[in-house]
Amino acid sequence: MIVALMQKNRRQIRSTGGDLLTIGYAIYHLPYPDRVSKPLDMKFFKFNTSVARSPTFINLREVSCRFKLPPGTYCIVPSTFDPNEEGEFLLRVFTEHENIMEENDENIGYGDMDAKVEKPPTPQEVQETDKAYGIFLKLAGKDGEVDWSELKEILDQTMKSEMQMSRFSKDICRSMVAMLDIDRSGKLNYKEFRNLWTSLRQWKNAWILYDTDKSGTFSGFELREALNAAGYRLNNRILNVLMHRYGNKKGEINFD
Question: A single GO molecular function, which one (predicted)?
């Protein structure tokens, strides 16, 4: 088979001072494709070597090579030589016989939550929960409910230092009220607040597990792992939308 990797739109970028990226690719054999994650994770690359590679990583518009491989399932991984470089590309594969080719990406849906995410609360977390419930009862009016501003006050007092945050934003507090407000009162009653608090503790567990560099922010890779641990299966397209919508200029996303 012949594998060709071509860079797209680099001529337009050259007009603004850009240049061709240094590109290449590696080919991995998947003897049991149903047993590996989609897309392939760091664990796979740590314990598996490529069966073929492009001759070199080079700053040409196209890199192509001919390979002779036994029948099977393979994953072609294109990349730039330097990490964290972004660009559009076209991957073409020509084979002697008919083949089935598709993007090795996750199907959108729900999965099982990681046991470490929904673990029983520690004694310290029980104290934090009691503190949050106490503030709720203090702020709730005669109707026994809190609005978004009162919810913000509860979260700022109980979680901001733990999650390395300045404060929870107004928008996220309004969104949480809208999401958990089952009776559409515009506020959260005690039961609705308890459900929200349980979800927040689980998201906090996922955050601590997958904020591997302890930066207080998530990269796109860390976000995918955390969402998978929380039981959400999203593909690259949806993850890119989330990062562009909620991320900063550095490609990082905060807890809220």
Answer: calcium ion binding
Q: Which of 104, 131, 146 is the last residue of a domain?
A: 104
Query: For 84-104, b where at least 16 C-beta lie within 10 A, e where not — what string?
Result: eeeeebeeeeeeeeeeeeeeb
Question: Would residue 254 count as lying in a domain?
Answer: no
Structural domain boundaries enclosing 70: 2-104
Reported as a single tens digit per residue, the pLDDT across 81-131 is 998 888 889 999 999 888 889 888 877 888 778 877 878 878 888 888 888
Q: Which two tokens stand for residue 125?
A: 């977390």
- The predicted-structure confidence for 171-229, as pLDDT tens digits, reads as follows 888 989 998 888 888 889 989 988 988 888 888 888 888 887 777 788 877 888 888 88
**Cα 249 from chain centroid (whole Å):** 16
Do 18 and 100 fall within a single domain? yes
Cβ 27 vs Cβ 53: under 8 Å: yes
Instruction: Say whether pTM exceeds 0.70.
Output: no
Closest CA to 191 of 181, 200, 201: 181
